[in-house]
Amino acid sequence: MKKLAVIGDTDFSLGFMLAGIPDTYEVTTDEEIVKAVEEVLKRDDVGVVIIKQEYLQKLPPVLRREIDEKVEPTFVSVGGTGGVEEIREKIRKAIGVDLWK
Q1: Within a domain: 100
Q2: Number of structural domains found in the chain
Q3: Which structural domain range is residue 12 located in?
Q4: pTM (whole model) above 0.85
Q5: Angle at CA 45, nearest 5°, toward 84 and 82?
Q6: Residue 101 lies in a domain
């Protein structure tokens, strides 16, 4: 079974840790964000990555493109705009079917 990972600052990650998700990456600098994303991409046991919206936007364009093109792990940004539409597109991309139709 694939794991859930979280990338965010201490306040963001705390709730997930309290919910029992041990794979959290607490980051504060842009370099730490990039390093955490690269590390998660190398893991084959992670299926979904929850990341703060603002952190996803700070990633270099090449890394964002790699995330968008990968089916797994699926990155879901939280805390910004997009919400349901973003998740809908990720699911459509992952399984090839739009579940909302």
Answers
A1: no
A2: 1
A3: 3-95
A4: no
A5: 15
A6: no
CATH code (residue 70)? 3.40.50.10580
The 3-class SS string of the chain reads CCEEEEEECHHHHHHHHHCCCCCEEECCCHHHHHHHHHHHHHCCCEEEEEEEHHHHHHCCHHHHHHHHHCCCCEEEEECCCCHHHHHHHHHHHHHCCCCCC
- pLDDT tens track of the chain, all 101 residues? 888 999 999 988 888 898 888 899 999 999 999 999 999 999 999 998 999 888 988 999 999 999 988 878 988 888 765 555 666 666 666 666 665 66
Question: Does some domain include residue 90?
Answer: yes
Q: Are 64 and 46 in contact (CB under 8 A)?
A: no
